[in-house]
Amino acid sequence: MIYPTNAADKLGFTEIKELLQTYCLSDMGAGLVQKIQPMNKFDQIYKYLRQAHEFKEILKNDSPLPIRDLYNIKVLAEKARVEGAFLNEEEFFHILLSLNTVFAVINYFNERGGLYPNLEALFEHLPVEKGIVKHIENVIDQKGKIKPNASRELQDLTFSIAKAESESRKKIDQIFKNARDNNWTADGNLTIRDGRLCIPLLAENKRKIKGFIHDESASGQTVYMEPEDVFALNNQVRDLEFEKRREIIRILTVLTDLLRPFVPLLVSYHGLLTKFDFVRAKALLAIDLEAEMPELKKEATINLVNAKHPLLLLNFKKENQTVVPLNVKIDETDRVIVVSGPNAGGKSVCMKTVGLLQLMVQAGLLIPADSHSSVGIFRQVFADIGDDQSIESDLSTYSAHLSKMKYFVEHSDAKTLVLIDEFGTGTDPQFGGPIAEAVLESLNRKKIRGVITTHYSNLKVFANANEGLENASMLFNNVEMKPMYILEMGKPGSSYAFEIAQKIGLPQQVLQAAKNKIGVQQKKVDTLLVDLERDKKALLESKIEVDKKERRYKSLLEENEKLKAYLEENKKTILKDAKLQAQNIIRDANKLIENTIAEIKNTKADKEKTQELRNNLQHELKKNEVKEVSRQKAVESELHQGDWVKVLESGAVGIVMDITKDNVILAIGELRSVVKRKRVQKIESREVPKEIRKSSYSSQISDSIAQFKPELDVRGMRGEEALYEIEKYLDKSLMMGFPSMKVIHGKGDGILRKLIRDYLKKYPQVTRLEDEHLDRGGDGITYVYLD
Description:
- There is one protein chain.
- It is elongated and about 175 Å long.
- The chain starts with a strand and ends with a strand.
- The protein folds into four domains: 39-179 and 234-289, MutS, DNA mismatch repair protein, Chain A, domain 3 (Orthogonal Bundle); 296-507, 3-Layer(aba) Sandwich (Rossmann fold); 563-699, SH3 type barrels, CATH 2.30.30; 708-786, Ribosomal Protein S8, Chain: A, domain 1 (2-Layer Sandwich), CATH 3.30.1370.
- The protein is an alpha/beta fold.
- Helix 2 runs antiparallel to helix 3 (27-35), helix 5 runs antiparallel to helix 11 (263-289) and helix 6 (89-112) crosses helix 11.
- It has a seven-stranded mixed beta sheet, with helices on both faces. A five-stranded antiparallel beta sheet has the order 19-18-17-16-20. A four-stranded antiparallel beta sheet has the order 2-3-5-4.
- Belongs to the DNA mismatch repair MutS family. MutS2 subfamily.
- Keywords: ATP-binding, Coiled coil, DNA-binding, Endonuclease, Hydrolase, Nuclease, Nucleotide-binding, RNA-binding, rRNA-binding.
């Protein structure tokens, strides 16, 4: 139910219906559009939305649907229902064309086998009775005329008429030639008078030929005579034509009798054509509006994402302008949105967008909003928009508003969507504000849902202090003094009355006088709102920075935990390898010493020989030491991507992903770490524990480096989501030493571009930002150059 009755007009729903009618091919489809009203049954609404969505998919992605000839065959079927009545040739031809369209449509969907289930349901269990077409085609030709051979009698009559006309023509041509040779005729040729072929004779010669005079010229000098010999032949033709007409009527009557049992089926076919014309119109409108099917919910909730007012969208399209999208959420927590802000800032458009899109969804129409928007179902929609003063009803503007408020309070409930524009206006603000607050309090107790626009400060304060109400404001650029048409939830907005007046050029003394006249408290509230908006912007920037640092902290903490777990897991292996290496060194040294002692014993402790063996021992030990030092230096000096290294402090083994200046990017297990070059020691592959080698991290890391591209597409993302992705890509680009990265954010209204660029400027590693070349995207792409 919509209250008052003109609310649909005020919200623009009537205009949407009128626009939808222009897309219909037939009067029947347009008539169906005229009847549509918002529904409140979930299954019914969902079915109509799915039908429009499926037809839109056909128009955009499939072969054209063969909808060509749409005639009102219901009227013709009702005429055929009457015993003794018959349809004429043109009417049968319209039925024939319409049935061909019906069967072509049914065949179209049968070929697609369940691809469009909701559209197929329109003709489910509807039989294809081609016998009707066969009967009509036996009588009516492709031009809509009765066939000469529709019956044997008609064929004979047609032949007889042609023969009689030929004889008549020959006879009159002969008489005319004779009269012309005798100079009895006037200027001109044979002519038709009263449906009869006549000879133009000079008046003085009219008695020279026997016949019937049908007419004479205005001057009386020429008479038009039908010769007596031709008269009988023409009468014969006339009689034959009457017989032919009677035979045609008999044939059409028989054909109508054959059609009569199929009248209910013809009515069903008519309904199918009407519905398809109607759904086709909805799909075409959806394409022009860039509309989608939102998620439909049974609860009385609204969550519109990037929604646009459909009528505003179409007007802006003509002028090559774009509409700023609206994001608004109404649920159990925030049931009523109290929107404030400057005049001409978009408050009313915001409220009307919510109301109009709600009516469109409940009427089965797709809406210009993202497909992941969600829309619930309301039993009632109450709207108070504009001036409804009435001379007939003796109602002033404010009285009309109060009458509506009375109805709202008495009849609203939790399933009611209430829309009020400029709540409380129309009377003395000293009294209008408190009355509006009391009405709002009463409506809030009934747990209604809705959007209310206002300039009254007491309503902003009331919304801030009560559960179920949420302040929102239309953003205003107080530097350029221009509205931004963006709805921001969570805070009231200033009217910017003095700022706008100053920009328009109102004299300073007038402005100052006005400021002196308003209450001190009101001035403080308005100033507070302006300051609050400025502070909230700064707070948002700080929040983004804090979130960034928090994510960084969590990342480092997670990295540290992974490293700790890796070290704990591989501690025994590392110690075992170290002990084994030490044992090998000791074993080799002992072996050398034992061999030396054995040789000393064999030489019976010969002094010279013993000294020689000692020198050889020292030489071998120094030689091994030099080799180890050389090996270590070689390891340290030659470090490449893919080499295995050991972290000196922890003993952790990892593989080199990349080398940037004095830093080495390592992969230790699944962990990535950046360490100073001097803190790692290169080791041979054979020294790497088997379990680490088996995991083959090197191939994964190499693939990761090969696959990584410093290019990120954030189109379609929300602000915080985009910044989070940019931060991750920026960190990777810096770690891998890329000199620049590319961020694709699109053009749109420039809001996302500004947010991203302001964010990137805070990074000390970012040296400059540039637009892409105009031919390759222009300011829809930002190049980020890194230090």
